[in-house]
Amino acid sequence: MKKFISLLLLLFVPCLSLRGQGEMPNILFILADDLGYGDVGCYNPESKVPTPHLDRMASQGMLFADAHSPSTVCTPTRYSILTGRMAFRTGMRGVFTGAGGPCMIEEGRLTLGGMLQERGYETALFGKWHVGMTFFDKDGKPINKNGLEAVRRIDYSRAMPDAPIHRGFDHFFGSVCCPTTDWLYAFIDGDRIPVPPTGIIDRGPLPKHAYSRDNRPGMIAPGYSMEEIDLQFLDKSLAFLDEHARKKEKKPFFLFHSTQAVHLPSFPADAFKGKTKAGPHGDFIFQLDHVVGELLKALDRHKFADNTLVIFTSDNGPEVPTILAMRRDHKHDGARPWRGVKRDQWEGGHRVPFIARWPGRIKANSRSDQVLCLTDMMATFAALTGAKIPAKDAEDSVNMLPALLGEDKEKPIRKYTLHQTISLALAIRRGPWKYLDHKGSGGNNYGRPGTWGMKQYALPEKAPDAPGQLYNLESDPGETNNLYFKNPEIVRELKGKLEQFKKSGRSAPL
Which of 4, 247, 262, 499 could serve as a FRET partner for 290 with CA atoms 20 to 30 Å apart? Predict the structure, then answer.
């Protein structure tokens, strides 16, 4: 009997300690858009933009120095966060714009929100969705197309059957795609658009600067303000926290706050214009930092902070025009110190800031060098809450809770990590070794001059005849020396593993 009791204690006491005397922690997950590793002060001492709230969050928690978005663009990254599965496995290329769909997350697939719902969480997503949604025309036929003409055909009296509230979230308010970029400028509440667009946006009164050239002439709803989007999303998240504190204080919550900032166009609200010395995009980053600060203050105000795991990260690296103009005009490098930017397979395209805070659980002012991928949220939150993940789900998700709690003892948790670009070019990482199964960046065109060209940042190729690229990030973090021909055995190993993970349908151990 004593042995039996000891075994029970061994099994259950760690879970109780993790959950705060039996209570599962709240989770606040903040996902920025196109925010680079070098855009945040605690990651880049040469940043020209103040980020006091993010810096303070890092001092109160853990900074991950080797965290990665699953993809170098937003749609596949968001799918992978929500499912724990690399998006290339769906075969979908590119990103959604406007009425594009259907939802990439097929009905019946376990999602981050759905998993936590099963554990008793109230789940909410406010902000950008961007993994597709099915709109219908007046005949009830699905549209599932991008572009202006598709938006014109939408019957707004019909609900979307694959909105976030049908994919694991109790509450949703936000945009179907990029809120100030794509063809449909209207808010979705639940699975409907209560205020439909009535005409084409008038871009005449909008700010004009180097960071304002990325919003399509789509249809816009009355009262939809291009310069207040992030503050409206913030209001929704704050209202959710207020309501939860009043009525459901004992129930754990999962709040996914998905920002517009700092995706182009950089339209900071009036209250933030001119607040930095780094132009409109610097002001936009500063506004994003303010949003984080307001969410953290709300946790304090409602006495949620001590039992809330807060994670802040970004969906990929910084955008091309942003990088070009910020480097030129303000000596600010959002990709510093890495090679590449958004869309590129090089580190600047997918190495992202990742800060975690949980008072009393995560050591303050700590740092982790563990390789982390945002697909890992599924397995990590499962371990955190005691959820069970079926073997068919979360195929590329690894439990990083030991790293968060400082229990990893510096041993690598992830043996292999996959990367993908918008074109479905693939790469694989093991320890310091990174193999790119393609030539070039896998994303941007470094041979083209001009606004969207990166020719001035092209590096000489030391192995121009190599069909792929192999870098040692420990000795060559700038990815300047392609070792494809010098280390053929490592190329064979990593390419073989990549093919194995493609064929088997999973990279995470069962």
Answer: 247
User: Which long-range CB contacts under 8 A does 243-246 form with residues at least 24 apart?
Assistant: 244/122, 244/302, 245/302, 245/303, 245/304
In a domain, 215, yes or no: yes
Q: Do residue 396 and residue 496 come from a single domain?
A: no
- Which residue, 484, 481, 453, 444, is CA-closest to 73? 444
Q: Are 440 and 446 in contact (CB under 8 A)?
A: yes
3-state secondary structure 364-420: CCEEECCCEEHHHHHHHHHHHHCCCCCCCCCCCCCCCHHHHCCCCCCCCCCCCEEEE
202 lies in some domain: yes
Residue 189: CATH number of its domain: 3.40.720.10
* pLDDT score for 448: 79
C-alpha–C-alpha distance, residues 134 and 275, integer Å: 40
Q: What values do phi and psi take at 464, rounded to 5? A: -60, -20
State the Cα–Cα distance between residues 363 and 374, nearest whole angstrom.
21
Low-confidence stretches of the chain (pLDDT < 70) are 1-22, 450-452
How many residues would you count in the chain? Answer: 510
* Domain CATH number, residue 436: 3.30.1120.10
Neighbour-count burial of 6, counting CB atoms closer than 10 A to its CB (0-12 exposed, 13-18 middle, 19+ buried): exposed
Give the pLDDT score at 248.
82
pLDDT number for residue 249: 76
- pLDDT at position 1 is 43
Burial of residue 415, with CB atoms counted within 10 A of its CB: 0-12 exposed, 13-18 middle, 19 or more buried: middle
Q: What is the pTM for the complete model shown?
A: 0.95
Q: Rounded to an integer, what distance in angstroms lies between the CA atom of residue 129 and that of residue 355? A: 22
Report pLDDT digits (tens) over 270-289. 999 999 999 999 999 999 99
Give how far the C-alpha of residue 300 lies from the chain's centroid of Cα atoms, to the nearest Å.
25
Using CA atoms, how far apart are residues 160 and 140, in angstroms rounded to an integer?
11
pLDDT tens string 66-98: 999 999 999 999 999 999 999 999 999 999 999
Q: 414, 398 in Cβ contact below 8 A?
A: yes
Residue 438 domain boundaries: 426-504
Omega of the bond leading into 359 within 30 degrees of 0 (cis): no
SS3 category, 146: coil
Q: Report the run of H or E that residue 172 belongs to, with start and end.
A: strand 171-175
In this prediction, residue 16 carries a pLDDT of 35
Select from 372, 396, 415 the last residue of a domain: 415
CA 388 to CA 296: how far, in whole Å?
29
Q: Interior CA angle at 170 toward 169 and 171, to 5°?
A: 90
Number of domains forming the structure of the chain? 2
- In this structure, are 257 and 139 located in the same domain? yes
CA 172 – CA 27 distance, rounded (Å): 16
Q: What is the DSSP secondary structure assignment for residue 221, as one 8-state letter?
A: -
Q: Which residue has the tokens 């959710």?
A: 240
